[in-house]
Amino acid sequence: MSEQFRYKDSRGVSRLMSDHIDPHRILAEEIGPAYEDYRRRWEAARTFQEQPAFPIHVDYEMMFRCNLSCPMCLMSLPPERRRVYGSAAEALSPEKVRELIDEGARNGQCAMGFGGLWEPLLSPAIPDLVAYGRSKGLVDALFNTNGFFLTEDTGRALIDSGLTKLMISLDAASEEVYAQMRVGSDFNTVASNIEKFMNLRARMNSRLPLVRLSFCRTALNEHELEPFLERWHGLVDFFSIQAYGRYESADPPGFPADWLAPPPAGRCAQPHKRLLIRHNGDIMPCCDASGTQLVMGNVHKDSLFEIWNGPKLAELRQRLGAGDLKGLAASCQACQDKFETA
Ligand SMILES: C[S@@+](CC[C@H](N)C(=O)[O-])C[C@H]1O[C@@H](n2cnc3c(N)ncnc32)[C@H](O)[C@@H]1O
Ligand code: SF4
Q1: Ligand nearest to the CA of residue 218, numbered in listed order
Q2: Per-residue tens of pLDDT for the chain, all 342 residues
Q3: CB of 333 within 8 A of CB of 325?
Q4: How close is the Cα of 90 to the center of ligand 2, in Å?
Q5: Which of 20, 10, 60, 109 is CA-nearest to residue 276?
Q6: Which of 31, 74, 89, 292 is close enough to 35 for a disulfide, judged by CB 3.0 to 4.6 Å?
Q7: Phi and psi of 284, rounded to 5°?
């Protein structure tokens, strides 16, 4: 299959592809000049040409919960090791997310997401929050999901909300491999949810959200990448092929080191363009799980503006810019190591 739209992130970790659409062109057509301005600002921040006065994109991890236990994900760790990364007892309320959207909208934030370690469709508030963010002028609203709870009603609410991108993680072409990769889910339910959602979007005469299917490439599923692309090619808008990154020193069986993502190709730009707000309110400078220990502040006592322009983030940016990995915070070191080939 030919690839009209290709994109590699700065570390060469994720590849987006479609042979029939350019997602950015469609979004520019649907949303207009504000989308193009946002992408220009994102690119300028990503390449260190401009330092925005407020994060361009903010992710809200509203809970630390998931209905699945995928072997590559920190969610599958035994409870005592998972506890290091968060607590199921704490949550970011929809009201708090609205307040954070208000602060972003006043300060030029362009995009919102529901990134982090959780399953966003566990929260019934997602469509309302997306609609709220879009009504306040945010031009991009997106999230990853395992697709299990993508019912027709939820699908309709998401299409009505103004969501721009829905990214569904599938990771397999067959029921057998899916069961190994997406433990606790059901292949036929999720495949049918995706097909129904695409039909619904067509019936509702909407081009958005663009739908991306993701494939996290590991030794368990690598042989199904081509059949996966063949199966869904032309049915969804685009694909993301992600390399597996090691989060803890002990890898689960089936993930030999030579399947890890390639080493980082450049300086990390995450703290120049985005923030992640975790379920307990902690403010993180990046969306990588390794960064969950890099706490810059907490939304229950600090404003995002103060933290974005404060000394902790300034120091992190300065250290990352200097490129001295030994001098970096332990979390950044872990992130770099995660993508190092053995
Ligand atoms: C952490 S999940 C959260 C959203 C949602 N629950 C889902 O599965 O899409 C976001 C993405 O991270 C990917 N992911 C999880 N563990 C990973 C790892 N060790 N390396 C690379 N990607 C990983 C998942 O496949 C998914 O596409
Ligand atoms: S569905 Fe997503 S968050 Fe849940 S275990 Fe799988 S990758 Fe992790």
Answers
A1: 1
A2: 545 555 555 455 566 677 677 888 999 999 999 999 999 999 999 889 999 999 999 999 999 999 999 998 989 989 998 898 999 999 999 999 999 999 999 999 999 999 999 999 999 999 999 999 999 999 999 999 999 999 999 999 999 999 999 999 999 999 999 999 999 999 999 999 999 999 999 999 999 999 999 999 888 898 999 899 999 988 999 999 887 877 765 566 667 666 666 655 567 888 999 999 999 999 999 877 767 778 999 999 999 999 999 999 998 898 888 877 666 667 777 777 665 432
A3: yes
A4: 18
A5: 60
A6: 31
A7: -115, 150
Q: Are 7 and 18 in contact (CB under 8 A)?
A: no
Q: Which of 59, 69, 215, 255 to mutate to test the pocket of ligand 2 (most atoms within 8 A of CB)?
A: 69
CB of 242 closer than 6 angstroms to any ligand 1 atom? yes
- Which ligand is in closest contact with the Cα of 240? 1
Q: For ligand 1, is residue 270 a contact (CB within 6 Å)?
A: no
Report which bound ligand comes closest to the CA of 145. Answer: 1
Q: Enter the pTM of the model.
A: 0.93
**Amino acid type, 121:** L
For 146, the enclosing helix (H) or strand (E) is: none
Q: What is the CA(1)–ligand 1 centre distance, in A?
A: 25
- Both tokens of 32, joined, read 């207009």
